[in-house]
Specification:
With about 325 residues, the chain is an all-alpha fold. The chain has three domains: about 1-195; about 205-265, no CATH class; about 275-330, Arc Repressor Mutant, subunit A (Orthogonal Bundle). About 70% of the residues lie in helices and about 0% in strands. It has helices at about 1-15, 25-30, 35-50, 55-60, 65-75, 80-90, 90-125, 135-160, 165-190, 215-230, 240-250, 255-265, 270-285, 295-300, 305-315, 320-325.
Amino acid sequence: MVGALLLGLSGKVLNVSEVFGTSFRYNAMSEFAALLFGTTLYLFTKSTVAKRSITRRDVMHYIPSIFYFGFILVYFVIPSDAVGSARMERGELVKVIYACHAFGLVVNITYWALSLRLFIRFRESLKNELSYSLKTKFLLNFHLVLGIGFLIWMTLFIISIIGYDSTERDARPILWLAMAFTILFIAYYGLLAPDVFQISVLEKNQKYAQSKLSITDLDKLKSQLDQLMLEKKPYLNNKLLKAELAEMLGTSNPELARLLNENIGMNFFEYVNYYRIKEFVALATTQKAQQLTFYGLAQEAGFNSKTTFNKSFKKLMGVSPTEYFNNQNISV
């Protein structure tokens, strides 16, 4: 992947170099990597959220890129200048170039959409495993930046079709280089700084169908959980995992997941933060409230993020912390 990108960058450099002169072949070389952007983003996201290396099966996603590479080589690079000129005169060359760009857009945007969907689903699934917010904003912003890049690419392609092809040709090298360096950025962090994107391995839930608890068993387990939360206050651990709470309760992760979702009606994230809000409100009436800020009290209650605290409080209470305590005539 990185080699193909470097080859593509070399084509751009050689094409504008005064030493080697300009050549259509040099420019065509840059197209070798055109289909790598979306595919690489998808596999990068997949390996990040699953915290595993790329497998041979994953590499199959590069098959369209390999065929595209071969086509560019055979059609654009190998033929003589005379063949290229003849194709240009017949109007064939322009049509093929447009077809290549359209194919590249379809493949890249498809894989970008698959990657974004995978990331969003993963972020939602964390609420069933974590009691705190994981910092995934970088990955979201990264998808948005590449999405904007693909949108610009598609816009320029449409503009070129309706007759303003010079605008697309002038902007294409800048856009291509920006996208290429973005992929090289991924490769750098993936190879040299993998810890930046590491996400803790979470115990995978089994299907509820494997649960053997009856309704009566679930009610009993709920009473035990309520007692555990009140007496031991595990929610004060700001990095509490569902697997850890299940172990404290003496049950399995899937059984606890079923209890929360079917009996209590909350996911793990909502349930734990519900108790943290209750703890926060209780702390606000103590002497400690005179010494700490809202967020200081929230940290005492188990929150590790100001944003998570504010969102959880407003969702549960219907108002912000400030509005709530103003209405209660309590000074914090």
